[in-house]
Amino acid sequence: MILPILSYPDKRLRIVAENVKNVDDTIKKLVSDMFETMYDSNGIGLAATQVNHHIRVIVIDISQDKSQPLCLINPEIIEKSGEISLEEGCLSVPDYKHFINRNDHIKIQALNEKGKTFKIEANDLLSVCIQHEMDHLNGILFVDYLSRIKQQRLLKKIS
Ligand code: K2U
Ligand code: ZN
Questions:
Q1: Number of structural domains, the chain?
Q2: Which ligand has the nearest atom to the CA of 88?
Q3: Residue 121 catalytic?
Q4: In-domain check, residue 5
Q5: For 70-109, how does the pLDDT look when each residue is reduced to its tens digit (9 = 90+)?
């Protein structure tokens, strides 16, 4: 089912998500709804926070043909290195893109949608997307990295 996505400056986007205790059927249903919602919005990532579920679940698919679904539950960054600046957008901040500096390479440990622990290394867009989504789980939006002036201009445009 397609879920409603919270929009900036909604305060609920600032809630820090809780760890998932066990990957049960409710989580599996949420993951499936998150993929459906992400694909429907032409996103390449979506965090549970954005659909008002404050648990540490992320779905990602940076492929053009929706062929590489990736689900990260309770993700933790094990390593990070390098610098990259990509133009980011956010399904919770419509019609706004900006270059953001992040690490180019990261190594993550997480649970998959079967509750099995796995490790993944990522570079470039995948690395940026994972970092963007993990920020969501900590109540951080990409606009938070911009100057106060830019944030005020954005808020004015939205209000
Ligand atoms: O809101 C979200 O978390 C989805 C983000 C994922 C993203 C993270 C980093 C860099 C770009 C996108 C986007 O809104 S998905 C739409 C999109 C796709 C490609 C490039 C820019 C925006
Ligand atoms: Zn986002």
A1: 1
A2: 1
A3: no
A4: no
A5: 999 999 999 999 999 999 999 999 999 999 999 999 999 9
Q: Report the nearest-CA residue for atom 7 of ligand 1.
A: 129
- Whether the CB-CB separation of 135 and 117 falls below 8 Å is answered with no
Which residues does residue 100 pair with via DSSP β-bridges, in sequence order?
86
Taking CA atoms only, the protein residue closest to ligand 1 atom 5 is 90
- Three-state DSSP at 25 gives helix
Closest C-alpha residue for ligand 1 atom 9: 129
Q: Which two tokens stand for residue 117?
A: 């622990």
Write the pLDDT tens digit of every residue in 17-64.
Answer: 999 999 999 999 999 999 999 999 999 999 999 999 999 999 999 999
pTM of this prediction exceeds 0.85: yes
Pocket of ligand 1, beta carbon within 6 A? 43-47, 86, 88-92, 128-129, 132-133, 136
Ligand 2 mean position to 88 CA, how many Å?
8
CATH number at 95 reads 3.90.45.10
Query: By residue range, what is the domain housing residue 69?
Result: 11-158
The owner of tokens 């900590």 is 138
CA–chain centroid gap for 123, Å, is 16
